[in-house]
Design brief:
- This protein is an alpha/beta fold and about 600 residues long.
- About 40% of the residues lie in helices and about 25% in strands.
- The chain contains 19 helices and 25 strands.
- The chain has an eight-stranded antiparallel sheet, with helices on one face. It has a seven-stranded antiparallel sheet with strand order 5-6-7-8-12-13-14.
- Strand 9 (about 180-185) and strand 10 form a beta hairpin.
- Helix 14 (about 400-420) packs antiparallel against helix 19 (about 570-590).
- The two termini are about 30 Å apart.
- Bound molecules: fructose -6-phosphate (F6R).
């Protein structure tokens, strides 16, 4: 999740305007920053690795002259944070500059094609190929706008792109597909950005671009057109009522709620992981004698959930371990036949890194899954994957959990295919399920938030909650419990439902709230018995059930209705969403700030 911006002015310099807009977009990414402008008929680029103020001190990006320019603040996906990988990127001749937010899935094949035609690519990003594709089209006598349009037609994936060209120094061309892009309509000036907050101090009139549309911005005109046909589209601007703060949170009152609502997009982005990295990880795991999944907190819950799929689909036993216990519990078993797949959103968690170093010292192969490219985990890993969630501002992990788990299941599928261990029909069902995930999450958000809010209101005086699940839903229950306790400071409990009768059940008395995570998977028949056990003790039963489930629903005091037919390994990604909302709404109802729970840090860098 990077931030892009652009400005075309009748008079004046874009440098200070781009700098100001990038500061407002910094929350979308902050590992490197850059600007490009057309100055005296040439493209001038200033860019470097570092936070915006650091780069400003070094390069004075706010001094960039020229009345047309583009800017970028980066959250690395392809290629570590570095000067070469910072945007804007240019073509061979420096005639075209581009900034990009998103993921271009077919960049490897396009890169090979461009290199075979003699193009020299300087970065390791997926973005740079766009500048070179446009360069190719300019050679073929296309004008700038058509050169961009033809280039966009070759891209698959998600992208918001903005480009300038020295040959046509009066316009910015931008393109949108599945990544945010908004146009700001000014007076004798027009703007574009990843979100409205970037240009709000300059104009309160905005225009949206839809997927597969592009726009040509000059200082006095905005032309919107379809990428496929070039046909012009009539689009009216609208007035923006938001304050800058609300706009930064996408109109939501808290970052956490914004991030919960981003999940249809962030899960889709996670699923865009390049197959080559999945393949590398699957190969390493296939060779290993022992495999551990290592993490803390929410990331550990993603590992725990994934361990079920590793066993059931790839027929591989993996051991999920809490990082702080790893060396004490398993140090004696780690050797060069060991693979440690380490999951850390921040890539900087001290307990996780210590365990990784301990495993590395004993000769293990380290695989990393993280949201922060360039983090220590990426440097310690033999192979790593970036989960593409963009910065998570809320301290509680939400969108990064669902993205981590989505990537882990992709690794399972790659391993199962390699080992030929899964029924092809099951794998196909899972692949189809990947495509439906964004829609299942969206439906859950739109149909269940009010229901969750109502259930929270009714139960806001309860002193404790218990979350129960079976099979893969144990991890969902544990994660739902963690969200509730860290945000509402309630001593919540979570158990494998089958284990609840071995102790926990003595806590249950009339009205005690027990929340069941009950998808219709293989564990379903048994969970009905556990629900009955709780009912018999007059617990208040709250259940997450599939829409067509009348059995658990009829035994429950309250139900949260989930979409039908989610393939069992994917249920944690959708079933966790109402539990995130539950924790969020409970914290807000109690008057706590869900973005900054007490005593917690986003990245725990102490032991
Ligand atoms: C809970 C939460 C923490 C983190 C844990 C590990 O909402 O965010 O439990 O999951 O501190 O952090 P990472 O994944 O950065 O290693």
């Amino acid at each position: 999740m990077c931030g892009i911006s652009g400005a075309v002015l009748e008079t004046g310099d874009v440098g200070p305007i781009l700098y100001d807009s990038l500061k407002r977009l910094e929350y979308r990414g902050y590992d490197s920053v850059g600007e490009a402008a057309v100055v005296n008929g040439r493209i001038v680029v200033k860019k470097d690795v570092g936070k915006i103020d650091q780069v400003e001190r070094q390069l004075r990006i706010s001094d960039l002259p020229g009345n047309i320019g583009i800017g970028h603040t980066r959250w690395a996906t392809h290629g570590a944070p570095s000067q070469e990988n910072a945007h804007p990127h240019t073509d061979c001749k420096g005639t075209v500059a581009v900034v990009h937010n998103g993921i271009i899935e077919n960049y490897m094949e396009l890169k090979q094609e461009l290199e075979s035609k003699g193009h020299v690519l300087k970065s390791r990003t997926d973005t740079e190929i766009v500048a070179h594709l446009v360069e190719e089209n300019l050679k073929r006598q296309f004008g700038f706008v058509d050169a961009v349009r033809q280039a966009a037609k070759r891209l698959t994936g998600a992208y918001a792109l903005a480009l300038i060209c020295a040959n046509e120094p009066d316009k910015i061309v931008c393109v949108r597909k599945e990544s945010p892009l908004v146009i700001g309509v000014g007076i004798s000036a027009n703007y574009l950005a990843s979100d409205i907050s970037a240009f709000l101090p300059r104009t309160k009139n905005a225009m949206l671009l839809e997927d597969d549309e592009m726009a040509v911005l000059t200082c006095d005109r905005i032309r919107v057109m379809k990428v496929e046909t070039g046909e012009e589209v009539t689009r009216k601007p609208f007035g923006v009522e938001w304050s800058v703060e609300t706009a930064t949170k996408g109109g939501f009152p808290h970052f956490m709620l914004k991030e919960i609502n981003e999940q249809p997009l962030t899960v889709r982005n996670a699923l865009r992981t390049q197959p080559i990295y999945l393949e590398l990880m699957a190969s390493a795991m296939n060779r290993a004698k022992r495999i551990f999944l290592l993490a803390c907190g929410t990331s550990y819950h993603a590992c725990l959930a994934a361990s079920y799929a590793f066993a059931n689909l790839a027929k591989v036993g993996v051991t999920p371990v809490i990082a702080s216990e790893f060396i004490d519990a398993y140090g004696a078993l780690i050797d060069s036949d060991t693979v440690v797949l380490t999951v850390s959103q921040s890539g900087e968690t001290a307990d996780t890194l210590t365990a990784v170093r301990g495993a590395k010292d004993r000769g293990a192969t380290i695989l990393g899954l993280t949201n922060v490219m360039g983090s220590t985990l990426t440097r310690l890993s033999d192979v790593y994957i970036g989960q593409n969630s963009g910065p998570e501002m809320g301290v509680a992990a939400t969108k990064t959990f669902t993205a981590q788990y989505a990537v882990l299941i992709k690794i399972v599928v790659a391993l199962a295919r390699k080992r030929n261990t899964a029924n092809p029909k099951d794998l196909q069902r899972l692949e189809d399920g990947f495509n439906h995930l964004p829609e299942w999450i969206s439906t859950t958000l739109s149909t269940q938030d009010d229901n969750v809010r109502r259930i929270v209101q009714k139960n806001s005086d309860k002193g404790s909650f218990c979350f129960l699940g079976r099979g893969v839903s144990v991890a969902t229950a544990l994660e739902g419990r963690l969200k509730l306790l860290e945000l509402s400071y309630l001593p919540a409990i979570a158990y494998p439902a089958g284990e609840s009768k071995h102790g926990f059940i003595s806590v249950v008395e009339e009205g005690y709230p027990v929340l069941f995570v009950a998808p219709k998977d293989e564990a379903y028949p048994k969970i009905i018995g556990n629900v009955m056990e709780m009912k018999a003790r007059r617990a208040q039963v709250l259940s997450l059930v599939e829409g067509d489930d009348s059995q658990v629903a009829s035994l429950s005091d309250e139900t949260i209705q989930m979409p039908n037919g989610i393939p069992p390994p994917l249920t944690p990604i959708v079933f966790i969403v109402p539990l995130q909302l539950f924790a969020y709404r409970m914290a807000v109802t109690k008057g706590y700030d869900p973005d900054f729970p007490r005593n917690l840090a986003k990245s725990v860098t102490v032991h």
